[in-house]
Write a structure and sequence with these properties.
homodimer; 30% strand; 9-stranded mixed sheet; 271 residues; alpha+beta; 8 helices; D-amino Acid Aminotransferase, Chain A, domain 1; globular; 2 domains
Chain lengths: 271, 271
């Protein structure tokens, strides 16, 4: 089910700037029935992205109504909201009077094996590295070729995610989730000031764990963590069982975050 | 006029990966009547981009037929060819069996004042800098937010282009054209191994001027050039009259390249 600018349709102009240049933003929102526990955070990030890309901010109430409409028939939905700068003249210059394109589409939530939450997932280290671009770091824009290339590095179904570094040997995130590590008893997550996406699930974890440090995380340091887990608005808190040949076990901080995720209203990941 | 996968239509699926992730490539081709003087170079770059993004290469003959169809009614057209990885499941992983989306759209060529070719254009220095990403440098992919941000820095109609540097103080290009400089009597153009687009017009200039050097070009060095010009498949050879307050005059190398452009078959820029 999909709405484009409030109309039931499944296509957009082939001249949309979202397609021509990736000129836009998106959010991927996990629903729990008719609720979206992280809704406010999604709307905050979307608004921040609009400021960064100098696009008019959307109306959250209108978006919420459309999210409800498209997901009404799905008991367990993921809704993607895409905002683009709309259509315009050919060329990079943003049109002076553009009307945004607003796509709200619902999908069935992915089936995630219970073992992933209980025992953790296997990951690999990607050779694709992320470029430093502070102008675009943090926001969830439509220029995602780095993530596509990183995810295309493997098709072994036993590998669920890939960790991605920047070009200085610092781990940034997984291809579609943020990363947390417990090192010397301290929870920390990589900075996303230069690259990476500031996930809404990441923000929820940071807020729930007041002592969480946000800083650069060299890969070598990351690999000696006592716990590693991923945060994702769609998949929740996923313990990391292995990065390549290095193995980990879900520990107390990971378990506490999984319990917190249930308290937020998500039900898919009872550990 | 527009063909999408060979059909006369002007829309694409709202789930196209070109829109979702910028997962694709494009070419912007200047026609001279029914001819495209730089066609072979466009097809070479498109094929190289497909290899880089691991997408199947298109059929150049099919594209050529479609370019002819969409531009037939326009005496002076610019045709944009866009190739995306098509639609797929939600998520970054490229679909195992994807059929590409192929958009071929014709536009009237832009009206460019004769004075631009005669006297040059005014440019500014953009504050937006380009990120180093060798995996994507050179190809003309759909992740163009850096160019959009750079082009959004000004709306003074007297400023035609903006020069963009990387994050190390090297000039790379204009927002939508490549840059050439004559320094100490030597023609040179910045390397696009780390960022920037390897323009087809740039390739034609390099081939025509055997002694052209391709290397890093510090901004400070660039600004003391005796000649500066831009190359663009759409706009041809544009002398740079000013970068901010620093002024230049079209010189003999620029004029020779403009004459060469006419020899290639382009008629729009008799200097």
């Amino acid at each position: 089910m999909m709405l484009v600018n409030g109309q039931w349709q499944d296509s957009v102009s082939a001249l949309d700037r979202g397609l021509s240049y990736g000129d836009g933003l998106f959010e991927t929102i996990r629903m729990v029935g008719a609720q979206a526990p992280l809704w406010e955070r999604h709307m905050q990030r979307l608004a921040a992205g609009c400021v960064r890309l100098r696009m008019p901010a959307p109306d959250p109430q209108q978006l919420w109504r459309e999210v409800q409409q498209v997901s009404a028939a799905l008991p367990d939905a993921v809704v993607r909201v895409t905002l683009t700068r709309g259509t315009g003249e050919r060329g990079y210059a943003p049109p002076k009077t553009s009307s945004m394109t607003r796509i709200v589409a619902a999908f069935p939530a992915p089936m995630i094996p219970a073992a992933f939450y209980r025992d953790g997932i296997r990951t690999r280290l990607c050779t694709t590295t992320l470029a430093d671009q502070p102008l675009l770091a943090g926001i969830k824009h439509l220029n995602r070729l780095e993530q596509v290339l990183a995810r295309a590095e493997w098709d072994d179904p036993l590998i669920t995610e890939g960790l991605v570094c920047d070009q200085h040997g610092q781990v940034i995130s997984a291809t579609a989730a943020n990363l947390f590590a417990v090192i010397d008893g301290v929870l920390l997550t990589p900075s996303v000031e230069r690259c990476g996406v500031a996930g809404v699930a990441r923000a929820a974890v940071i807020q729930a764990h007041a002592a969480c440090e946000i800083r650069d995380l060299p890969l070598t340091e990351c690999l000696r963590a006592s716990e590693l887990f991923l945060s994702s608005s769609v998949r929740g808190i996923l313990p990391v069982q292995a990065v390549g040949d290095t193995v980990y076990a879900p520990g107390p901080v990971t378990r506490a975050m999984q319990r917190y995720w249930c308290e937020l209203g998500f039900s898919m990941e009872q550990a």
